[in-house]
Design brief:
Order of helices and strands: EEHEHHHHHH
Largest sheet: 3 strands, antiparallel
Helix content: 55-70%
Radius of gyration: 19 Å
Number of helices: 7
Number of strands: 3
Strand order of the largest sheet: 2-1-3
Strand content: 5-15%
Shape: elongated
């Protein structure tokens, strides 16, 4: 699944291309943090990219579980903290890192995204146009090839 954010005007017309916020895979949770914390409908649109089974937890049942179960309460708090920190890291990465570095981070830290997600979606996820991703991929793979060649020559 992917989470995407679309910006609309007051008339409901889309005024900005969708931004991909996150990719979620089998046995992972997906949520709108703002919606979860405020208990209101999400402004984030979640789209499944492949066939899947989705299990939803109604907000009221989640809150009841947190109020009656120490395990559920701890799980909820840990999840919120982890999810929040991952969103902050992504924002910092977009502000501080080059697109090349964000792509390399995906290769190193989330290779499943590279293997299973169409390149157009990967491009929007790291904040670049698909044509730019082609250039980034060429640059990254040329750099890796040159490093390997240098290591082989040194051996």
């Amino acid at each position: 699944a992917r989470d995407r954010d679309e910006i609309h005007d007051d008339g409901g017309n889309k005024i900005q291309h969708d931004n991909i916020i996150e990719f979620t895979f089998e046995n992972e949770f997906v949520t709108s943090l703002t919606s979860l914390l405020e208990g209101r409908p999400s402004e984030i649109y979640t789209q499944c990219l492949s066939d899947c089974i989705v299990e939803a937890i109604p907000y009221k049942k989640l809150i009841e579980a947190c109020e009656t179960s120490l395990f559920a309460n701890k799980f909820y708090r840990d999840f919120i903290g982890s999810y929040y920190l991952s969103r902050i890291k992504k924002v910092k990465d977009i502000l501080r890192k080059s697109a090349d570095q964000r792509y390399l981070d995906l290769i190193n830290n989330r290779p499943k995204v590279i293997r299973e997600i169409p390149l157009g979606h990967v491009a929007r996820y790291i904040g670049v146009h698909p044509n730019s991703l082609s250039r980034i991929r060429r640059h990254v793979f040329t750099g890796k090839k040159q490093r390997v060649e240098r290591e082989l020559e040194a051996a």
